[in-house]
């Protein structure tokens, strides 16, 4: 992205990483995490600023069985309205 501002009338390149809550509740998997990590490494390598814009409900822990087992998560449907 190359925004043009009063202090940078020629524009300045910015690496933007974003998530959107309207797509899968804004959660992201390891594939997305790895892409975000690569974009972050790239921005540092070329010395461009990075902006992370997120509207997220969190990670998809339910899909990571290793994490689920490590945390002893038990999924239940008792009163989902209670969080």
Query: Terminal Cα separation, in Å?
Result: 37 Å
Calculate Rg over CA atoms: 18 Å
> Are there runs of 5+ residues with pLDDT below 50, and where?
none
User: Largest beta sheet, briefly?
Assistant: 2 strands, parallel
Mean pLDDT: 79
Secondary-structure element order, as H and E?
Answer: EHEH
Explain this structure to me?
It holds the Pfam family Carboxyl_trans. The protein has two helices and two strands, in the order βαβα. The protein has 83 residues and is of the alpha+beta class. Strands 1-2 form a two-stranded parallel sheet. The termini are far apart.
Describe the structure in brief:
With 83 residues, the protein is of the alpha+beta class.
Keywords:
28% helix; 83 residues; 12% strand; two-stranded parallel ribbon; alpha+beta; elongated
